[in-house]
Task: structure prediction
Amino acid sequence: MTNIPGQRVFAKANLSAADNAPLYMRIKRLIIEATAKGDLRDGDAIPSERDVAELLSVSRVTVRKAFSELVREGIVNQKRGSGTYIGGTVVRVEQPLSRLTSFTEDMKLRGIVTRAEILSLQTALPTPEEALKLSLSPSERVSRWRRLRYANDVPIAIEHAVIPERFLPDASLVRDSLYAALDAAGFKPVRALQRLRAVALDDEESDLLEVPSASPALFIERISYLADGRAVEFTTSHYRGDSYDFVAELTLANEATA
Ligand code: 16G
Result:
């Protein structure tokens, strides 16, 4: 058995027989308590299923059940062929709700490497909803990008952006950043309205985001505007529920204006 930091936690452990909780829950609790006490830290390796089973005199099936729940809850992550480590694989990002930024800018500020995979790109007449959101006449064409956004190589959002063609006549110019392309064309948005709600991902979205089917996600709709008031972007996105915290600053309502 290799000597790794997590081994001490299990070597000292005593799964109290007086405890009524199922064994796998007691193993989970052991790991969670060790992280709370600082005995196990982010990035620490924990012993293999087989080693934990041996150290605690329990079956491997029990340990597997505890590990798979811990993975699902983002407390540990498993790297194929390498082992189990404390901490989730997904970066967790805080986005202030009052600043208009792009995905690329948001991530760059945090030193996170991003990329965008274009899942589909089309230019067509707007749907009635798109025409309404972007205040377009039904004959004004739009381009639509469906992109999978990665943070440090982990897929964290699916974005569907709709932009009137007149702002970006050559849709192929959009590489990693839509806002950079809009900026280069002289149409970077300066203001946006955003609404968000919780949803469960469908099977296709779960596959793309590499999470179990029906995992929770944030559905976000953004309409952004140019300084002259024209709508330039209508984007709907699904963000993995475990990857983004949206933070809003609240001030006490002034009684005179409330
Ligand atoms: C953000 C915006 C999205 C925008 C994108 C541009 C949210 C919820 N959405 O992801 O509306 O299209 O940034 O990013 O914040 P890009 O310039 O990196 O393509």
Summary: The pocket of 16G is lined by residues 102-104, 159, 161, 177-180, 220, 222, 233, 235, 237 (CB under 6 Å). The mean pLDDT is 87. The chain has eight helices and eleven strands. The two ends are 66 Å apart (CA to CA).
